[in-house]
Specification:
mainly alpha; two-stranded antiparallel ribbon; 4 strands
Length: 436
């Protein structure tokens, strides 16, 4: 038993190491692209953001339609600086010029047009998306990069729906599409920052759905790859969708096909996958901080933990237009539900209450009138997966509050979990056939 455990741990560790090395190698290769080769399109991108505010409402004053030009300016700034100096060092010591009193958008413009040197450390992330920014700018500017990312996302969603339909799970495909609509997933086209985690989620969903039939061992391996990849590409936005939605779909499919097994077996599987994902996600950061500390001679761990304290407990972070400090430990949760229901302010308790009452009453009514005699096996597992998102809101309370306008999209998991649970626990009425 012990030997089997260590063999499995060694295999998963090897997968983690290989995936992280391959991703780093691709980032390094992108850094070898001469900045002169992308200068023209990068200047177009810089001019684009020079004309925008840090954050902008795209549709009225709804928080779910905010474009995050601040984060995109950072992405472009970092992507440019990766191509400066020693490539091996630049992909580890990821700094940017913040524009000083002029702001990050101006900092991007001055970096590209006047060669301003970086003055702000940002080594705590891998910044893997910078590779696609650099490759993309060989052909187009930032608007084209965002469009390509959105088209890739749509194609992956189409592939997922095709796989579900081929397995005769049109109902689950419809629930997934409804969940995507509930979080206005089409708005990920507004900013590059919004795209990586959702693209990765729909890269992994087909893999989870295909490989889950070959055994649970593939799910834990995919969890390792998922955790590593989202840590490499994402800016701490909607990282949970890369593991929770794939697992929720696996549970739902297995439930429909009567392959789910006991609750104990399911919870153990979810625990294993969760541990693999968390260790890989955290491990990718630890590797980055360790290498960064060796390269820069500074303690990258201290800088990272300082940032983590801000995300959880609150701090002096830039906001859109109002005070950023949450009022209490559930402010992040209330803020995200406010955005989900079309909020026009950071927190609107009345809107949240009304939205929840209407939605839950409607869902309860459908379940009550059409419920089966016996509850579905997958209900508990699905609701646990959905509930983890709310735990995330509470743990990263300040981050969830300040960045509600994109973090709220993680609610796709509890929405899918709740709708799927209701669907699996009801039975549509059938007309009685005539007797011959």
């Amino acid at each position: 038993m012990i030997r089997k455990f260590f063999c499995s741990a060694a295999k998963h560790t090897a997968v983690f190491a290989v995936v992280l090395f391959v991703l780093w190698l691709l980032l390094f290769l992108s850094a070898l692209i001469p900045n002169d080769a992308i200068r023209g399109n990068m200047e177009k991108s810089a001019n684009t953001y020079k004309e925008h505010s840090t954050y902008e409402f795209v549709k009225g004053n709804k928080f779910n339609s905010i474009a995050d030009y601040y984060a995109d300016a950072l992405w472009l700034n970092i992507a440019w600086n990766i191509g400066e100096g020693n490539s091996l060092k630049s992909v580890i010591q990821t700094d940017y010029y913040d524009g000083e009193g002029l702001g990050e958008n101006a900092g991007l413009y001055l970096t590209i047009t006047e060669g301003k040197s970086p003055n702000t450390d940002y080594t705590r992330y891998w910044h893997g998306t910078a590779m696609f920014i650099r490759f993309g700018h060989l052909l187009t500017d930032v608007e084209g990069v965002k469009l390509i990312g959105f088209i890739v996302f749509l194609l992956l969603v189409g592939l997922t729906i095709f796989i579900l339909a081929r397995k005769k799970h049109w109902d689950l495909a419809a629930i997934l599409a409804l969940s995507l609509a509930a979080v206005q997933s089409w708005n990920i086209r507004l900013s590059m920052e919004y795209q990586p985690s959702f693209i990765l989620a729909f890269v992994f969903i087909p893999l989870f759905l295909i490989l889950e039939r070959r055994g649970d061992k593939w799910l834990t391996i995919l969890s390792v790859v998922s955790g590593t990849a989202v840590a490499f590409f994402d800016f701490l936005t909607t990282e949970t969708v890369t593991i929770l939605i794939p697992l929720a779909l696996v549970i739902a499919v297995r439930t429909k096909e009567n392959r789910l097994g006991s609750l104990k077996e399911n919870l153990l599987l979810l625990l294993k996958c969760g541990i693999c994902w968390v260790l890989s996600y955290g491990g990718a950061f630890i590797v980055k901080w360790l290498i960064a500390s060796m390269v820069t001679g500074e303690n990258a761990f201290a800088l990272a933990f300082s940032s983590a304290e801000v995300h959880t407990l609150g701090g002096n972070m830039q906001t859109i237009d109002i005070e950023n400090r949450p009022d209490n430990f559930i402010s992040g949760l209330l803020a995200n539900l406010t955005v989900l229901f079309g909020g026009t302010e950071r927190v609107q308790p009345e809107r949240v209450m009304l939205g929840l009452i209407i939605c839950l009453l409607l869902i309860f009514s459908v379940w009550y009138m059409l419920r089966k005699k016996e509850s579905s096996k997958g209900t508990t597992s699905l609701l646990i997966l959905g509930g983890l998102v709310f735990v995330r809101f509470l743990v990263l309370n300040n981050h969830s509050y300040v960045h509600e306008f994109f973090v709220y999209r993680t609610l796709i998991t509890p929405i899918f979990a709740l709708l799927a649970s209701v669907w699996l626990n009801i039975e549509l009425p059938h007309k009685k056939g005539r007797r011959k």
